[in-house]
Amino acid sequence: MNKILVTGGTGYIGSHTVVELQQKGYDVIIVDNLSNSQIEVLDNITAITGIKPQFEQFDLTDAPKTADFFFRHNDIKAIIHFAAFKAVGESVDKPLMYYRNNLVSLMNILQGMSYNNIPNIVFSSSCTVYGQPEQLPVSENSPILPAMSPYGNTKQIAEEIIRDTLNSTKLNATLLRYFNPIGAHESALIGELPLGVPNNLMPFITQTAIGIRQQLKVFGGDYPTRDGTAIRDYIHVVDLAKAHVVAVDRMLNKKSKKNLEIFNLGTGNGYSVLEVINSFEKTTGQKLNYIVVERRPGDITEIWADTEFANNELGWKAEQGVDEMTLSAWKWELALEARKRS
Ligand code: NAD
Ligand code: WQD
Which of 128, 152, 204, 235 could cross-link with 147 by S-S, CB 3.0 to 4.6 Å? Predict the structure, then answer.
């Protein structure tokens, strides 16, 4: 069995990816410091797959601990590196915390890979690297625009660090640029666990519907879009997770055409905020209390992915539509509520 390291594997996207990897027969080891996730996620992964992933809890910015980990696990065949801080607003307030966490952890991992001849890394990048693109949809060759936040900048710099490292080593990398992941596993055993007040749309919708938040604020009703609200390419987290398995398969089977490959992971469809709300109300039967307010500073008007390269070259396509995404997010919120009560 090929052994895969998933950093950040108890987090939102990581946990869904661990499930898909295990179900495809991979032997998974997770490293996470639980700074934004909970240890119970391991039991929930096990409940879905019947396999308890190996787990080590430490901070990947700790160079000696990371080096020791790779020394003990030099049979790892590929790494999927999710571990990072991801809150855009917080990164503006605490830029050094973001640069340190997101970049030092990456550098420690690349060092460990090159010392121990671990050849493959899949890196979680983001559509944020494209800013507000002049042309839509955005392809992998679209220009990288100046980052709007320190968080976004960590993704751009991380891509550069990986590119430069590949120039001087035998390592291979796949950069996956995610659009807007939402939804949860169909079992409702794993999903997103936002700490405090959610910044992102989907958890804010479900928390409002369940009564944790009083009202959803729709940021901006005056965008030059079909209904005045901003447009994003929302992608089901399980589709996203499956793309990671395909990317790992491709690297291990030496199907990559270059030592650095980049893929957009979206559905290719843009939905406005109001369209997401309508989908949520339709699929769940819940009436959402919302109000349209002023734009959120830093938000772009619209973005969606050109998925041709990922579809044709990676041989992967997002399968689930927006209704499946909003319904699964709601089932997850209900499951969280039930757990709180029990
Ligand atoms: P998440 O916060 O749920 O998961 C990240 C995990 O990494 C957490 O479990 C956290 O405890 C862990 N972690 C953070 N820093 C660590 C460190 N120094 N050492 C060890 N563990 C550490 O986030 P997510 O939504 O699953 O995102 C995963 C990756 O995808 C991140 O790199 C994020 O930037 C990227 N991404 C996310 C989105 C999104 O909207 N969720 C979009 C694009 C890209
Ligand atoms: C989506 C739309 C909001 C909350 C962020 C990061 C990006 C990437 C994905 C990691 C926007 C609107 C939101 C609310 C609202 N993450 N909205 N009311 O901003 O596209 O992207 O997450 O890489 O880097 O910036 O996602 O979910 O915050 O917002 O009206 O309470 O929903 O204005 O139009 P975003 P989001």
Answer: 152
Reduced to 3 states, what is the DSSP secondary structure of residue 336?
helix
Q: How far apart are CA 96 and CA 186, in angstroms?
A: 37
Question: Which run of H or E residues covers position 29?
Answer: strand 27-31
Quick check: CB of 124 below 6 Å from ligand 1? Answer: yes
What does the alpha-carbon distance between residue 255 and residue 5 come to, in Å, rounded to a whole number?
Answer: 20
Q: Are strands 231-232 and 271-272 parallel, antiparallel or unpaired?
A: antiparallel
Q: Rounded to the nearest whole angstrom, what is the distance from the C-alpha of residue 223 to the centroid of ligand 1?
A: 30
Question: Which residue ranges does the chain devote to CATH 3.40.50.720?
Answer: 3-183+234-265
User: How many angstroms separate the Cα of 279 from the Cα of each of 205, 262, 282, 324, 328?
Assistant: 11, 31, 5, 9, 12
192 CA: nearest ligand 1 atom: 3
Question: Which CATH homologous superfamily contains domain 201-231+268-303+320-341?
Answer: UDP-galactose 4-epimerase, domain 1 (3.90.25.10)
Which secondary structure element, helix H or strand E, spans residue 219, and what is its range?
strand 216-219
78 DSSP 8-state letter: E
- Which ligand is the nearest neighbour of the Cα of 86? 1
Q: 87 and 102 in contact (C-beta within 8 Å)?
A: no
How far is the centre of ligand 2, averaged over its atoms, from the C-alpha of 201 (Å)? 6
Question: What is the residue-wise DSSP string for 135-197?
Answer: SSSBPTTSPPPPPSSHHHHHHHHHHHHHHHHHHTSS-EEEEEEE-EEE---TTSSS-----SS
Q: Which amino acid is at 280?
A: F
Give the model's pLDDT for residue 76. 98
Q: What pLDDT does residue 263 have?
A: 98
Q: Which residue carries 């959402």 as its tokens?
A: 288
pLDDT < 50 stretches in the chain? none
For residue 220, the model assigns a pLDDT of 98
Residues of the chain with CATH 3.90.25.10: 201-231+268-303+320-341
pLDDT of residue 194: 85
Total number of residues shown for the chain: 342
